[in-house]
């Protein structure tokens, strides 16, 4: 597998795990398991940080003069990174709403 395909898959894997964890956190909050949902947010944040580290390294390589070939897989990785950031913020808001406003 080409170097940049591996990098793209690393980003996709890390942020995919983060996204799944954030979605599970929302489910736990819906079920009233707020401690579990908060723990899942923390876990998801670590996956997201891992994805950002890979992404940062790629940006630093390009800043150092390395030519980074743009392809659909890398674009997908970028899209997944951005959308996971949005899902993280929405998950935190939904957990807050469930904790404070939804009656069980």
TrEMBL record:
Phosphohistidine modified-residue sites: 76
Keyword 4Fe-4S attributed: no
UniProt-listed InterPro entries: PTS_IIA_lac/cel, PTS_IIA_lac/cel_sf
Pfam families in the cross-refs: PTS_IIA
Source organism, top-level taxon: Bacteria
Record key words, sorted: Phosphotransferase system, Sugar transport, Transferase, Transport
Name the UniProt record assigns to this protein: PTS lactose/cellobiose transporter subunit IIA
Protein's organism: Mammaliicoccus vitulinus
């Amino acid at each position: 597998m080409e170097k940049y395909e591996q990098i793209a898959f690393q980003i996709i894997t890390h942020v995919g795990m983060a996204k799944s964890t954030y979605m599970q956190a929302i489910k736990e909050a819906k079920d009233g398991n707020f401690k579990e949902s908060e723990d899942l947010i923390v876990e998801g944040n670590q996956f997201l940080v891992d994805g950002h580290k890979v992404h940062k390294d790629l940006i630093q390589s390009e800043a150092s003069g390395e030519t980074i070939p743009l392809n659909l897989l890398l674009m997908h990785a970028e899209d997944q990174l951005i959308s996971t950031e949005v899902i993280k913020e929405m998950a935190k808001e939904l957990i807050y709403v469930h904790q404070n406003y939804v009656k069980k």
